[in-house]
Amino acid sequence: MTAEFYDSALDEFASSRDVRNLVVSAADGVRDAARSGAPVLTGEYRDSIHVEVDQDRAGVVATVVADVEYAMVVESREGVLARALNKVASRA
Q1: Extended strands (E) in 18-69
Q2: Tell me, what's the pLDDT at 3?
Q3: pTM: predicted TM-score of the whole model, two decimal places
């Protein structure tokens, strides 16, 4: 028995609005969890946490980003984004 894959159909599905909405919704959940678990001194780190979405014909990718200058220091000490991802993934 062999299986045939129709790449154009898979590409169309991966680029669909429904898949985009699902991916962005999941990323929004991670963003919200990260913001609620972020340490707050000035609020600048927490407020910098956002979702960036890239889409091409192969599909959609959503990335949760904290982009203040010192975000890597906060993440290395606190694990805010990693904990948020684990929290949301454990609900799935």
Answers
A1: 49-56, 59-66
A2: 65
A3: 0.83
